[in-house]
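Example record

One chain of 104 residues, shown exactly as stored in the release files.
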Amino acid sequence: MALIDLPARTVRIRIVYYGPAFGGKTTNLRQIAARVPPHARGDLASLVGDDDRTVFQDDLTLDLGEVGGWQMHAVLSSVPGQPRFERTRIAVLQGADGVVFVAD
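Predicted structure tokens for this chain:
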């Protein structure tokens, strides 16, 4: 569910990139981060294992600017696709406002 801060007039949404292992979820976020100007995004935060695969989730925060006097922010998250991380995927999806299914 979107987080709305009335006094600060900000809205923050979470979009989750979901799909199978090696489907391109983290690659999608890396490409978005590479194309969005640094002043309009945070750093891509990733928790990866020894094999350079996502262990928990990746997060990229975007500043979407102002709409109707409200500052809009989006957090793009990807979940690990490996079957052993099913509980992690469920936990991350709990707060999602939207889902992008990615498969290669």
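Notes: The chain has two helices and six strands.
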